[in-house]
Amino acid sequence: MNKRLIPTFLILLLAACGKNETNYKVEALKVTTETVSAGIANTGKNYVGKVEEESMTPVSFTGMGTVSKVYIEEGQYVRKGQLIAEMDPTQCQNAYEAAKATLDQALDAQERMEVLHKAQSIPDIDWVNVLTKVRTAQSAYDIANKALMDCRLIAPCNGIVGKKLMESGMTTIPSQPVCTILDITKVKVKVSVPEKEISLFNPDMNKGKGVTITSAALGGKTFNSTQFVRSVQGDALTHTYDVRFSLPNPDNELLPGMVVNVSLDTDEDDPENKTVTVPVRSVQQSANGDQFVWIAEGGKAHRRIVNIGPTYGDRITILSGLAIGDKVIVKGYQKVSDNSEIIAD
To answer: What 3-state DSSP class applies to 4?
Structure first.
């Protein structure tokens, strides 16, 4: 090669390299950011609830016998004193007649002996025996009369017939329910609350807080309640506690067994509900398990380690790591790396 051509060749080569370096300069990445601010956390809780009656009264005969007639049906409204069912009274009637005859005999003997007693014609001990027989006969009569009356089963209270458990011809024994009567003028809604959330249901709820109860069976009709009772003993298997909310039911719309949705209302003015949230998708996890987000600062992307909290919908709570005013990259974060040049929208 001609030695005089070498310097010219080197100059051209260096010029070409300089031109290529200009062509390969990295362009700034376009990203979208969100400015961190203190917002209100959507801390509402939703539970599945079940409607229960205010009280349930089992109604049963006090004696044993055969049911001759049942006058009620399930779902029927009954009033206190209304006849519900009758039991075959034959045996009780016979016992009553025998007790009445014995009492009549004892009273007749008392009347006859009283004349002799006043005339002091009989010893006092004989008169005492007569009085004792009268009292014994009277007690037996009262028992037989009560048993005969108990062959008619009377409603002890007002309410709706829940379950009809006996039919005509069936044999009943003492304390075996013929039916149940439910009081649903007020009802209870029972929910099972996880133990980590039971602290939400405390007496402070009566200070403006409460729950909204929604019934799908009633076309989405809602009810509100702040009065509740919570159990103090949790379920050993599910680690839940029962909480029962009371609410009026004057139209008997809510029926025992209905499934409802129970949502815990939040107080937006409560400072404890103020928190920092970012889109869930913007939080990533490093190889060592740390959660982080990308921050736009000074025209560059910077990784920021954060501690996360509960998730509410498509947003997640940031417990620490971010400050008010920080700009979190919410779109385009997949393309950036530490100190990448960026252009934020």
So the answer is: helix
| Residue 162, both tokens | 């829940």
Average pLDDT of the segment spanning 224-252: 90
β-strand partners of 171: 66
Q: What is the C-alpha to C-alpha distance for residues 180 and 213, in angstroms, rounded to an integer?
A: 26
Q: What is the mean pLDDT of residues 260-275?
A: 65
* Rounded-to-integer distance, Cα 69 and Cα 58, Å: 18
- Find the radius of gyration of the CA atoms of the chain: 43
Q: Exposed, middle or buried, 263 (CB in 10 Å: 0-12/13-18/19+)?
A: middle
Mean pLDDT of 303-329: 86
What are the structural domains, with CATH classification, of the chain? Answer: 29-43+272-344 (2.40.420.20), 45-54+178-267 (2.40.30.170), 89-150 (1.10.287.470)
CA distance 155 to 78: 7
Residue 40 has pLDDT above 70, yes or no: no
| Cα atoms in the 13 Å half-sphere on the side-chain side of 230 | 17
pTM beyond 0.70: the answer is: no
Q: What number is the average pLDDT over the span 61-67? A: 93
Tens of pLDDT, residue by residue over 272-308, are 456 788 889 999 998 898 999 999 998 899 999 999 8
CA torsion angle 230 235 238 241 (round to 10) = 0
Taking the C-alpha atoms of residue 95 and residue 22, their distance in angstroms, rounded to an integer, is 119
